[in-house]
Design goal:
Layout: H1 10-60, H2 67-75, E1 84-90, E2 95-98, H3 105-110, E3 114-115, E4 123-127, E5 130-140, E6 145-153, H4 155-190, H5 192-202, H6 220-269, H7 275-306, E7 315-318, H8 319-337, E8 340-345, E9 349-352, H9 354-371, E10 377-384, E11 389-397, H10 418-421, H11 430-440, E12 444-449, E13 453-461
Parallel strand pairs: 3-5, 8-10
Antiparallel strand pairs: 1-2, 1-6, 4-5, 5-6, 7-9, 10-11, 11-13, 12-13
Helix pairs in contact: 1-4, 6-7, 7-11, 8-9, 9-11
């Protein structure tokens, strides 16, 4: 079973980033301070070792009459240096002098010796529980070849460093906790505008779709989000209004045929009638039911198209061939109302589902026939508007469609005005289907209307010659 993990909150993400940064910075600072102190102690001890080594070498370089005089001179060679020890051996390891009970013979014999003081030869020497910083040097006189071992007790340094490290970590841990606490408070306060936006968003209901967030009263980081949210609300409000109008329109469109069916049926059943009368009643009801069926089928088809459930099978079509086949289909109807058809433009190749294109153009021709005066002609033009696009236009003379109605012509059940509605025996879905068909085939449709003519233009992808 797959367990979904919830993403970390913004507060936790920022706190984790701050914590990692603090740990990294404090660790670096602590290492730097510790290294600096150790280097300071090394420099201090190095200076001590140099002074002591030079003092002992100075004494050994002097001539003495007896061993006793040499030992007395070595005993007073170093004065005022606490925790400093030195020992002199011959090259063979024989003890000449040691300043304390600590035996550094092993150190003198094993450590790398140098002529005089050399800082790079300083080593750390451990014996038992003690730790020393030591230097072994060699001195050759006219009488003897000596090895000098000088050591400084590091106990004080080590105790200081241990206590300092403990104090330093306690201070840094406390500082880290304090910084994280301050960071949490700052983040919590910084997110207050988001909480305010959340409350305002909760106030937006279906009956308050006109409420908008003020992008001038939010931090600059949230300005784009607020503007995008307002744009989304604009789209939702527009679609909600259209959906509400659509619900009202469909209720009105369904009520009329249903009322007709019910009324005619009630009248027919009010008294006994002849068989012919019942047949007429059934024929009338059948017409209304067929109209309802067509309306429902068109609505279902539109819903499938707009949700991507109908996939067009695009093929290369010839504009004049498709237009001619539709003219043949509408010739009888056009002749009945005294209208003729004309084909204009060049014969173009384009991509479209053939059934879709014929239904699209059929709806446009049906619409043009309804509003074209008797004796006039309807033109279907085909032209290439760019290297990749062709335009098929249906142009008919007639009264102008007001400009304010043009953006809504392709909405379901929309009719510009009552005067045009009386000419129509459709249900107001024809142009909505035209738009859906064009968009399903990666095309578009536009409409233009003036005092002389109305033009519906369909734009489709051009097919190049092979």
């Amino acid at each position: 079973m797959r367990v979904s993990t919830r993403p970390l909150s913004l507060t936790m993400r920022v706190l984790l980033f701050v914590a990692i940064t603090i740990i990294g910075c404090f660790t670096f600072v602590a290492s730097l301070i510790n290294s600096s102190i150790e280097h300071h102690f090394l420099q201090q001890d190095s200076g001590e070792l140099q002074v002591i080594t030079q003092s002992v070498e100075s004494v050994l370089s002097q001539p003495f009459q007896s061993q006793k005089q040499l030992e007395n001179a070595l005993s007073i060679a170093v004065v005022g240096h606490h925790g400093v020890y030195y020992q002199v051996n011959t090259l063979e390891g024989e003890l000449v002098y040691q300043s304390s009970h600590n035996d550094f013979t092993e150190l003198a014999m094993r450590a790398k010796a140098s002529q005089g003081f050399k800082k790079e030869n300083i080593i750390t020497w451990h014996t038992g529980s003690k730790a020393y910083r030591a230097l072994v040097s060699e001195l050759e006189t006219s009488k003897q070849h000596y090895k000098i071992a000088v050591a400084i007790d590091m106990s004080f340094h080590l105790r200081f460093l241990t206590q300092f490290k403990q104090s330093l970590w306690v201070i840094m841990l406390g500082s880290a906790v304090l910084v994280l606490l301050v960071a949490w408070i700052a983040i919590h306060q910084g997110l207050n505008p988001l909480r305010g936006l959340t409350q305002k968003m909760l106030d937006i209901q279906t009956n308050k779709m006109d409420v908008r967030l003020d992008h001038n009263n939010v931090p600059v980081e949230l300005e784009n989000m607020v503007q995008s949210f307002n744009v989304m609300l604009d789209r939702l409000q527009s679609e909600f209004i259209r959906l509400s109008n659509f619900s009202s329109d469909i209720a009105h469109e369904l009520r009329t045929p249903l009322t007709n069916i019910i009324t005619q049926t009630q009248v027919g059943l009010s008294k006994s009638r002849a068989v012919v009368d019942y047949q007429e009643l059934l024929f009338s009801n059948l017409e209304e039911l067929e109209r309802l069926t067509k309306m429902v089928n068109d609505m279902l088809w539109l819903a499938k198209t707009q949700n991507g459930l109908i996939k067009p099978k695009q093929q290369i079509l010839q504009s004049h061939d498709e237009i001619a086949s539709l003219f043949d289909y509408f010739d009888a109807l056009a002749e009945e109302v005294g209208i003729c058809f004309k084909t204009e433009g060049e014969n173009l190749r384009f991509y479209c589902d053939q059934l879709h294109f014929r239904q699209l153009l059929s709806n446009l021709l049906s619409n043009a026939i309804r509003y074209t005066p008797k004796g006039a002609s309807i033109s279907v033009k085909s032209e290439k508007v760019s290297a990749d696009t062709v335009c098929i236009s249906v142009v008919n003379p007639g009264e102008k469609i007001p400009a304010e109605h043009l953006p809504y012509l392709f909405d379901r059940f929309y009719r510009p005005d009552k005067s045009r509605q009386k000419h129509s025996d459709g249900v107001g879905l024809g142009l909505a289907i035209v738009k859906a068909l064009a968009e399903a085939n990666d095309g578009a449709i536009k409409v233009y209307s003036d005092e002389h003519e109305t033009c519906f233009s369909v734009y489709l992808k051009s097919a190049k010659l092979t």
